[in-house]
Structures are given as structure tokens and as C-alpha cells.
Amino acid sequence: MTIPFETDRLLLRTMQADDLDAVYEIWGSPEVMKYCGGASTKSQIQCSIKFYRRLQNEKGYSVYTVLLKENSSIIGVCGFNPAENEHEAELLYHFNQLCWGKGYAAEAAAACVAALRKNGPNVRKIIAAVDPANPASGKVLRKIGMTAAGMKWFEDTQQEELCYEMELA
Ligand SMILES: CC(C)(COP(=O)(O)OP(=O)(O)OC[C@H]1O[C@@H](n2cnc3c(N)ncnc32)[C@H](O)[C@@H]1OP(=O)(O)O)[C@@H](O)C(=O)NCCC(=O)NCCS
To answer: What is the third-level CATH fold of 5-126?
Structure first.
């Protein structure tokens, strides 16, 4: 993927160490992370930023920092985690609560999928799992063209989640 990449309103770039405070507003927020494994501490987020910088070099995709072009503020994170199957990548998006409801998640997620499809490594399918109690997230996935593929049990969250997928080929 060619980084950074942009949409009408957003710029997506590799995570940087000094994103920490802004990303803590997102990954450190119990409200934002309610359906996504819970809030992280600052030191956990520091490790995650290092992980995602490495992931970009190793796999050619990652989770990116999302900035609003009009004022360069960091409003979210969006991108891909490795999946169990090496030909699949898992889409995720977490946005600062102040920025929900403006279409940013769907705009960022669509751009990540387009960039992966265009310049990506050997990924053939994008997957995502949604807590059924989080309908906004399912809506984002359907907006960008992913389709529901049934319920699956997840050990980490100890619950059934609705799985979505999209073939890239
Ligand atoms: C889920 C999340 C990313 C959505 O971000 P967003 O920028 O508000 O998303 P969008 O504006 O692109 O679209 C959200 C859609 O869901 C709809 N929505 C919001 N709350 C909803 C609800 N409770 N029930 C049904 N639909 C809902 C919105 O109306 C919007 O649809 P519309 O464009 O047709 O009006 C954001 O709420 C978030 O960061 N949540 C916490 C993290 C999270 O849950 N991540 C995903 C799972 S890991």
C-alpha cells in the first residue's frame, strides 16, 4: 500500500510515537472500546504503535492514524490486523467519540480497502467481526460493501459475533 493515502476529508498515515496522546483518547476510552475488548493503558498503546509500524514493514498493511485534513487533528484509527489465514486481513476502525455520526468511519474504511485492493500484498479476503450490540459498526461494513457471513464464537471476547467478509480478487 502507498502511504499516506487520502479521501475528500481524511488523511491516513503510518502511526507515529507522538500520536500517543491523541490515540489514547480513542483506545484509552471505555466508551469507544466498549465493544472492542475494552480500553488500553498508555503503555499498551505505545506497544501497539510500535507493533503497527512493524506490521506495515512486515506485511505491507497496518492500522493507520486517521487525521482530519481541514485541521490535521487525529480523529481515529483504521486499517487491518493480520488474520489466522495469511491471505485474509481483519478490518478495524475506532474513532474519537466527538467525531461519530459524520460518516468518517465508512470513508476511512472504504479508502483502506481500496488501497489494499490496489497496492496491497497477497491479501484475498477482508474479514471483520461485529458485536451484535454495536449496530453502527455493522452499518459501516455494509456501507463499504462487506456482507454478513454468519455468527462465530470468539474466545477473546467470550461471545458470538457477526462475521462480515469481502473478496478482494
Ligand atoms: C462504529 C464507529 C466506528 C462508527 O463511526 P462513524 O464515523 O460514526 O460511522 P459512520 O458515520 O460512517 O456510519 C455510522 C452509521 O451507523 C449509524 N448508527 C449509529 N448508531 C447506530 C445505532 N445505534 N443503530 C443503528 N445504526 C446506527 C449511523 O446513523 C450511520 O449510518 P448513516 O450514515 O446511514 O446515517 C464509531 O461509532 C466508533 O468508533 N465506535 C467505537 C469503536 C467501534 O465500535 N469500532 C467497530 C468495531 S471494532
So the answer is: Aminopeptidase (3.40.630)
Residue 105 burial (C-beta neighbours within 10 Å; 0-12, 13-18, 19+): buried
Residues with CB under 6 A from ligand 1: 32, 35-36, 92-95, 100-106, 134-137, 139-140
Length of the chain: 169
pLDDT tens string for the chain (169 positions)?
678 999 999 999 999 999 999 999 999 999 999 999 899 999 999 999 999 999 999 999 999 999 999 999 999 999 999 999 999 999 999 999 999 999 999 999 999 999 999 876 789 999 999 999 999 999 999 999 999 999 999 888 888 999 999 999 7
For ligand 1, the distance from its centroid to the CA atom of residue 3, given in whole angstroms, is: 25
What ranges do the domains of the chain cover?
5-126
